[in-house]
Amino acid sequence: MNAPADIVTRRAPLAATSWNPEARTLEVVFSTGSDVSRMDVRGGFVERLSLEQDWSAFIGAPVLNSHRRGDLTDVLGSVQKAWTVGGNREARAIIRLSRRADVDPIIQDILDGHLRGVSVGYVIHDWKETTEAGQRVKTATRWSPVELSIVPIPADRQATIRGETMPAPTVPADPAGANPPAAAAPTITAPADRAAVNAEIRSIATVAQLDQGWVNSQVDASATVETARAAAFEAMRTRSAGAAQVRTTTINFGVDHTDPALRATAIGEALYARANPAHAPSEPARAYLGLSMPEIARDCLRTRGIATGGLSSAAVIERALSTSDFPLILGDTVGRTLRDGYRTATAAVRQLGRETTNRDFRAKHRLQLSEAPTLEKVLEGGEFKYGGLAEAKESYKIDTFGRIISITRQSLVNDDLGAFSDLARRMGRAAAAFEAQFLVNLLTGNAGAGPTLSDGFGLFHANHGNTGTVALSTDSLTAARVAMRRQKGLVAEPIAVTPKSLLVPPELETLAETLVAAITPAKVDDVNVFTSKLSVVVESRLADTGRWYLVADPAEVDGLEYAYLEGEPGPQIDTQAGFDVDGVKVKVRLDFGAGFVDWRGWYASKAAS
């Protein structure tokens, strides 16, 4: 059929001109490409739709009841034809409505003039950005309508689901003046709650099994819930078209970077990358690279729907500090920098222990079991005998340690990343140094005897067979190794402990390296038996310059054990907008504890004075 005449020239109501009762078709205007004000990370811009499109993909798209798609009854019909008129200034469509009985009341409301609004759901594929009179203009050069809805009122101008009221038809003059032209349906505009909309978009993506890229595109376009649903519907339809008939239900787990906490992580990483150019930022973080601290604060406020026009950088920072997002972002940046400092300052003695976790702050009881019982001969017709395992236990607990540092408002306004990055890195090193000193104090306590174990003796005691009174030398190393090899288990079974590390203070470092160095011997007697057998570990916190230790591999023999609270290894960060402090308070917390759970993997010696 030929394209209908311009809708504004129709002289009768929809029922008289546009409605075809036999075919159950109706003509609608679904877009004029008019400008819409929107907001993104860079600020405000004008969105414009180009109507120079290929509408063939729109044919067959569903006509919905107010964008609802909860069940099949929400589908009122389908799009039969789409085209533009007036030099691509107006987009129109012919829709066919269902013959279901529940659709008839809606048709009647259209004929009676009660329903005049239509709304189109679309997805934008390509943008072209220009500037007009100092205003950013983003023109959607390629976009796809995915559904058309009959609505009580068109969608507001702030929504991506763009609705336009169908113009009131022109009615012939009535001699009696009794039939005035019908008034056009009003357009209602209401501000959008972006936080709630973004949350709903994430829910839609989860249900539709769409990835993070899809979510980001909807959020960046300031999409409304209706637009996102329409786009998701189209994505599902496209996916279904190429899918096999036999399917397996799959649950896809992804990362949602529009969630406030994860969005804070992305921005925090971007700030961290500014302070650490060697860091390669992730894809979500790249969107925020180059933004200053005040610009990030302004973006946090916009995301919350808070106007920032006319506000100075200081005022923006002050308001952003009252939200939950901005302190989270700063906390993420501080946390990354703190962990850098923490990792680079790892203590030497720490590598000689085994890391574990504790669920709570109660004492951790470490159970030890003996070796399996020896097999015994079973006589013909004889009975197998039960063998038992001896057991013992040692205990220790974790405690909480921490400090509070502050990031001043002045450094935030000045965009001084170096100031608090340096402070955070120092705090990370301080946390690592605290752990190291904690372990050294545990090892060297009780005048070098170490902690008292459950048997009432110190870690290093003659009853444990793990202490000597000679200086470091080849002979003393030999004696120490023999002592460890001769260690026995809980039921006096040989366990043949193999030493792996030689722990010394800095004063014995050169001697230790000489003793384990690889050399080319001139004769058999000169062969260094400790080459490739021991590794030297130097701990500068060991105050006793003459005491040295031989240590077994902690993965093979129990000994030193340190623990963090489950799920919180290393120092943790909490942030809070300050009241007594003008800025952000950052609490550094460490839940940490350590203890020796067995003496058999450690040996200590010092020359008698």
Automatic annotation (TrEMBL):
Keywords: Hydrolase, Protease. GO terms for biological process: proteolysis. One of its GO terms (molecular function) is peptidase activity. This is Prohead serine protease. It comes from Aquabacter spiritensis.
